[in-house]
Amino acid sequence: MATTHREPTSERNLDRYGAPTIPWEKVRDVLSRSIPQEPGAGGPDRHTCWLATVRPDGRPHVMPVGVLLMDDTFYFTAGAATRKARNLAHSPHCVFTVATHDFDLVLEGDAVKVSDPARVARVAEAFRADGWPASVGESGASLTADYSAPSAGPPPWEVYAFTPETVFALGTAEPYGATRWRL
Fold this sequence. Notes:
The protein has helices at 24-32, 83-90, 117-129, and strands at residues 10-13, 49-54, 60-65, 68-70, 73-79, 93-99, 103-113, 135-136, 142-144, 157-171, 178-182. It is α+β, with helices and mostly antiparallel strands. A hairpin with a 6-residue loop joins β10 (157-171) and β11 (178-182).
């Protein structure tokens, strides 16, 4: 995901029942390992990352997306005509959520379209290494492949970089708890 090297500037225990603060190191370790999305990889059967964006009229929009962690940044794709891409063009503010074995994570921040061809090429290479056979599209600033998630729309897919500013972890295992960090 996106916080493997960044350290929090503040921390707050949100638990009202006496659970301790969740150690940032536990969250950082989960994020630094990346969060696999193939079936059988997580709970209940796999880890699904959900992206929440805001429509121009203020209504929320949520979709599952494939994500890639590289250089402390989440990367994901979207077709230019998809609702999430149109929402991000209007406002970069968004939220990622994912359930892991020890805690549910909520990451708030901004997603921006990547236009640098060298960076897009690095993202394509990393997606290929992760099992999705993406290649750089004709524009040099998008990806293409024989398939993608149905929610991505048809190719080419624009590449977005998401950097969280706030991370919430809500414990799903002992000692439970809830903690917020500002990065």
